[in-house]
Amino acid sequence: MNRLMVCLMCLFATSVFAGEVPGTYAYYGFGSPPNGFDALEFRIQVNNAAGSASKVRWANKFRFVGSQLEGYAGIQTRGDKRSVFVFSVNHSNQSKLGSAGGKCHQSGSGQTCEIDVPWNEKVQYRFDIKYEKGEWLRVIVTDLNNKKWVNVGSIKVNAALLSPDGIESWVTYMEGSSGRSTCFGQPHSEAVFYLPIGKLKGKKHTANITSYKTRSSCQEFSKVTEYEKGSLHENGIGNSVRGPIQNAEHCLDVERGLAEGNAMIMYPCHGRDNQSWVFSKDSTIQAPYSYCVLNKGKLIAGRCAPLDRYTHWLLDGALIKHKVTGKCLTEHGYHKQVTLEPCDGSSNQQWRTIW
User: What share of the chain in percent tops pLDDT 90?
Assistant: First the structure.
């Protein structure tokens, strides 16, 4: 093998398997703000939450006057059908519970409060971040459709005012912490961030967008569109959302969890990672952390290889066809291996997805 080929292989491995995920950012400023605010108002509307098995956070970050503290508040999916409102501040060691069902805990060098809430897509949520007595900061989230609200919790910040500087909105794909993650395996999402509002003694100051960008990796998968009231953030563009592939009451499952070479079987649906799939724009079917459905004589889970034609699939109505062989994904019952068979449209080739 010549030196050029070795270098090309190294480049390909680095670019594809470097923990790459999409992400977007919007940065804000105020025309003539006061030195600080005693409250902030953020509004977020997630139009597409990337599927029930996604792991994505949509949040606004803020800072404090005369302090190194930073915090954020937003909406997050956990990958196990759980969705939460979350509030976090670094370098803090005290927190207080809010509404029933919430929890607060130490997270890294700071404190995080969160509450499980079945929030809805295409609904606008207002985050009111406001001081209580004694430099405690509280976050209230209100559903602007039905006006119901929850108290996410309070965190001791040891800073008297919120800063007009350093406010940003950002979308984070949580699988970026894994070196296996790639752009092609991340589900599609879409959210609107409205312009932040700073408040001091009741007087409102509306921010403006000073700049925005996409994460340096996966730039072709991400887009920010600015408009009068805020910005639209799209990520995972070209990929599907993430969710189960189901036939009758069972789901396509990587037997014994995500690992190289494990068989593809049918198993009762539970929604964990080994049953959570994205149909990628490169025609692969991917679970989290770049595990693809591979045809290696039998169907197994293995590392996704976009240039390997034997990993490519075609959606044809309820049929899932293997591109090279032209055969269809076929189930044979509980805990039985899934196979490729000639397409005949029978019930064991009829799949339901959220794609």
Answer: 88
